[in-house]
Amino acid sequence: MNDTSKQGSIHTVQTLADAEPGMTTGRIQWFIIENRAALIDAGVVFYLGKRLLIDRDKFLSFLKTSQ
CB count, 10 Å around CB of 28? Predict the structure, then answer.
């Protein structure tokens, strides 16, 4: 995956962890569990059927502002 394909894209937990070397699937899952309602309200995560999808740019922005 090159840098341009990571920008503004929609990911699963696994593909986001693959695209962001500083994050593990476990850490992403934990963060989503701890902040689920706020992430959904902000449009950071959403569901397509049973699949949880993550807007990468919004996730990183939310992560930076939640610290």
Answer: 20
